[in-house]
Amino acid sequence: MTLNELVCCLQQFSKSNSSNPVINTIEMDSRQVKDGSLFICIEGYTVDGHDFAHQAIEKGAVAILAEKQLDVDVPVVYVKDTKRAMAVISNVFYDHPTTKLSLIGVTGTNGKTTTTHLIDKILMDARVKTGLIGTMYMKIANEKVEAKNTTPESISLQQSFRKMVDQGVETAIMEVSSHALHLGRVRGCDFNIAVFTNLSQDHLDYHETMDAYRHAKGLLFAQLGNTYCHKQRKIAVLNVDDPASKEYEKMTAAQIVTYGIEHECDVIAKNIKITAQGTYFEVEAFGEKQSVQLKMIGKFSVYNALAAMATCLVDGLPLDDIIKSLQTVDGVSGRFELVDEGQPFTVIVDYAHTPDSLENVLLTVREFVQGEVYVVVGCGGDRDKTKRPIMAKIASELGDHVILTSDNPRSEEPLQIIKDMEEGLTEECSHISIVDRKKAITHAVERANDNDVIVIAGKGHETYQIIGGETIFFDDRLVASEAIKERGSNEL
Ligand SMILES: CC(=O)N[C@H]1[C@@H](OP(=O)(O)OP(=O)(O)OC[C@H]2O[C@@H](n3ccc(=O)[nH]c3=O)[C@H](O)[C@@H]2O)O[C@H](CO)[C@@H](O)[C@@H]1O[C@H](C)C(=O)N[C@@H](C)C(=O)N[C@H](CCC(=O)O)C(=O)O
Ligand SMILES: Nc1ncnc2c1ncn2[C@@H]1O[C@H](COP(=O)(O)OP(=O)(O)OP(=O)(O)O)[C@@H](O)[C@H]1O
Ligand SMILES: N[C@H](CCC[C@H](N)C(=O)O)C(=O)O
Ligand SMILES: [Mg+2]
């Protein structure tokens, strides 16, 4: 494709000269540039991509897209907003891949990864060829690719959709983060179904206010399109029990389908019974009643199951088949994952890194625990600081023993993060702060009695810890399992 063919889709631009090179790839990172690349300069939070234009040309870039004046020998296309232009150009370069598959987007503070995996499982069981994009990895047909962000930048996103289309993927299911919506990473994606899980506090470092955060998530429903203008139906699947759904209903022109537990809706769960073995409920979906026995535990798991059910129902699958699939799911890696070395107490590794998710997980544990609850928890550095004392408060109110520790401190001082958390501890709670996460986990494992439950929160599936500029291998599940074995051998 030539530069002119590529940029003619832009609303407004000017070109530094008339040459029209062939563009082989588009890149936003000078380090990835190859012969024939169009290099897009993005002013980031850390550095300014415009400063890498020369480096990109040295590596083979034949054209540049920029916001700021550049003195270079290759043609430069100037636009007001390179990020916006990047999304438009990526979509054109990869030939509008999302119009060639069915696209399901899931947004919300908690439950995106879980819900996308449930939808993926149900669709795969129905022999639909699927793709998946989210926190843990990207799945393109049968290939799994590591993910840096939950929702990637538009170039990588559109390229992945193109690969999916080329490999015959029929439906792509993706997590859509609030950052991605606000930064325009998903501009140009032709969503068919947009799903809302829930909204609670997170990412206030970035969005600053809950109003701004709620609005960012709403952009998914605003960009869903108009049911009446498309051949394919556009549907917003909303959680009726979350007040934000009212706003999203107003923000979208798409058809609305609702799910929930507390209020009347299209797909509702009743008579929920939670045990340590699983969760039972009765579902009434568009008037049809069925019983469901999930292996996953907790009321929040019911919400995720309902969201997946509602989505797959509107996607055309029969309720019977959907329930059969859901009942086989053991869980999602790092979400309420049990570490079982045959010990007489329970160890749960969970990705709860927000106040609401921590509360949900601990309330669920409280439903079945016979002994005491140990909570090992930290908060990420370079992230929303205001959630630190709130998470410690929740841990101390719902746990019997709290062990505050490090999550991913990133560029922050680990002890300071823990001090911020300590502010929220209730006075009467038994607690200790241990900066080293391995020692913190071991501390809990060494002290737990029969029938106690240890919840290790915050890092779930992560296999690393980011301390300063260094990323070291760290897996809560392996650390816990080693500690359990060590205790076992010491007790022999
Ligand atoms: C705040 C934020 O979103 N940051 C994202 C942003 O980084 P940045 O603005 O710091 O980029 P930068 O390093 O300043 O670089 C600016 C430009 O210069 C380019 N560059 C840079 C260096 C160089 O040598 N050459 C070069 O060309 C870069 O490629 C980039 O185009 O652009 C990067 C490239 O796309 C992202 O990976 C990065 O996400 C970082 C890793 C991040 O942590 N993001 C989080 C906050 C995030 O987006 N999270 C959400 C939601 C999480 C959830 O589910 O709760 C997500 O979707 O992941
Ligand atoms: N529907 C839900 N409501 C509240 N909490 C939930 C829900 N589903 C999962 N959780 C909790 O949130 C944690 C994260 O779940 P999950 O990874 O599915 O969410 P996510 O939205 O993908 O998170 P992220 O924003 O980090 O990508 C889980 O480990 C669990 O503790
Ligand atoms: N997507 C979330 C994940 C947080 C996971 C937690 N372990 C942390 O590092 O804070 C974020 O980037 O804010
Ligand atoms: Mg996720």
Automatic annotation (TrEMBL):
<dbReference type="InterPro" id="IPR036615">
    <property type="entry name" value="Mur_ligase_C_dom_sf"/>
</dbReference>
<keyword id="KW-0961">Cell wall biogenesis/degradation</keyword>
<dbReference type="GO" id="GO:0000287">
    <property type="term" value="F:magnesium ion binding"/>
</dbReference>
<feature type="binding site">
    <location>
        <position position="149"/>
    </location>
    <ligand>
        <name>UDP-N-acetyl-alpha-D-muramoyl-L-alanyl-D-glutamate</name>
    </ligand>
</feature>
<feature type="binding site">
    <location>
        <position position="30"/>
    </location>
    <ligand>
        <name>UDP-N-acetyl-alpha-D-muramoyl-L-alanyl-D-glutamate</name>
    </ligand>
</feature>
<feature type="binding site">
    <location>
        <position position="383"/>
    </location>
    <ligand>
        <name>meso-2,6-diaminopimelate</name>
    </ligand>
</feature>
<comment type="function">
    <text>Catalyzes the addition of meso-diaminopimelic acid to the nucleotide precursor UDP-N-acetylmuramoyl-L-alanyl-D-glutamate (UMAG) in the biosynthesis of bacterial cell-wall peptidoglycan.</text>
</comment>
<keyword id="KW-0131">Cell cycle</keyword>
<keyword id="KW-0133">Cell shape</keyword>
<feature type="short sequence motif" description="Meso-diaminopimelate recognition motif">
    <location>
        <begin position="407"/>
        <end position="410"/>
    </location>
</feature>
<feature type="domain" description="Mur ligase central">
    <location>
        <begin position="106"/>
        <end position="311"/>
    </location>
</feature>
<feature type="binding site">
    <location>
        <position position="177"/>
    </location>
    <ligand>
        <name>UDP-N-acetyl-alpha-D-muramoyl-L-alanyl-D-glutamate</name>
    </ligand>
</feature>
<dbReference type="GO" id="GO:0051301">
    <property type="term" value="P:cell division"/>
</dbReference>
<dbReference type="GO" id="GO:0008360">
    <property type="term" value="P:regulation of cell shape"/>
</dbReference>
<keyword id="KW-0547">Nucleotide-binding</keyword>
<dbReference type="Pfam" id="PF02875">
    <property type="entry name" value="Mur_ligase_C"/>
</dbReference>
<dbReference type="InterPro" id="IPR036565">
    <property type="entry name" value="Mur-like_cat_sf"/>
</dbReference>
<feature type="domain" description="Mur ligase C-terminal">
    <location>
        <begin position="334"/>
        <end position="460"/>
    </location>
</feature>
<feature type="domain" description="Mur ligase N-terminal catalytic">
    <location>
        <begin position="23"/>
        <end position="87"/>
    </location>
</feature>
<feature type="modified residue" description="N6-carboxylysine">
    <location>
        <position position="217"/>
    </location>
</feature>
<dbReference type="InterPro" id="IPR035911">
    <property type="entry name" value="MurE/MurF_N"/>
</dbReference>
<keyword id="KW-0963">Cytoplasm</keyword>
<dbReference type="GO" id="GO:0009252">
    <property type="term" value="P:peptidoglycan biosynthetic process"/>
</dbReference>
<dbReference type="GO" id="GO:0005737">
    <property type="term" value="C:cytoplasm"/>
</dbReference>
<feature type="binding site">
    <location>
        <position position="458"/>
    </location>
    <ligand>
        <name>meso-2,6-diaminopimelate</name>
    </ligand>
</feature>
<dbReference type="Pfam" id="PF08245">
    <property type="entry name" value="Mur_ligase_M"/>
</dbReference>
<feature type="binding site">
    <location>
        <begin position="108"/>
        <end position="114"/>
    </location>
    <ligand>
        <name>ATP</name>
    </ligand>
</feature>
<dbReference type="GO" id="GO:0005524">
    <property type="term" value="F:ATP binding"/>
</dbReference>
<dbReference type="InterPro" id="IPR005761">
    <property type="entry name" value="UDP-N-AcMur-Glu-dNH2Pim_ligase"/>
</dbReference>
<dbReference type="InterPro" id="IPR013221">
    <property type="entry name" value="Mur_ligase_cen"/>
</dbReference>
<keyword id="KW-0460">Magnesium</keyword>
<keyword id="KW-0132">Cell division</keyword>
<feature type="binding site">
    <location>
        <position position="185"/>
    </location>
    <ligand>
        <name>UDP-N-acetyl-alpha-D-muramoyl-L-alanyl-D-glutamate</name>
    </ligand>
</feature>
<comment type="pathway">
    <text>Cell wall biogenesis; peptidoglycan biosynthesis.</text>
</comment>
<dbReference type="GO" id="GO:0008765">
    <property type="term" value="F:UDP-N-acetylmuramoylalanyl-D-glutamate-2,6-diaminopimelate ligase activity"/>
</dbReference>
<feature type="binding site">
    <location>
        <position position="462"/>
    </location>
    <ligand>
        <name>meso-2,6-diaminopimelate</name>
    </ligand>
</feature>
<keyword id="KW-0067">ATP-binding</keyword>
<dbReference type="Pfam" id="PF01225">
    <property type="entry name" value="Mur_ligase"/>
</dbReference>
<dbReference type="GO" id="GO:0071555">
    <property type="term" value="P:cell wall organization"/>
</dbReference>
<feature type="binding site">
    <location>
        <begin position="150"/>
        <end position="151"/>
    </location>
    <ligand>
        <name>UDP-N-acetyl-alpha-D-muramoyl-L-alanyl-D-glutamate</name>
    </ligand>
</feature>
<keyword id="KW-0573">Peptidoglycan synthesis</keyword>
<dbReference type="InterPro" id="IPR004101">
    <property type="entry name" value="Mur_ligase_C"/>
</dbReference>
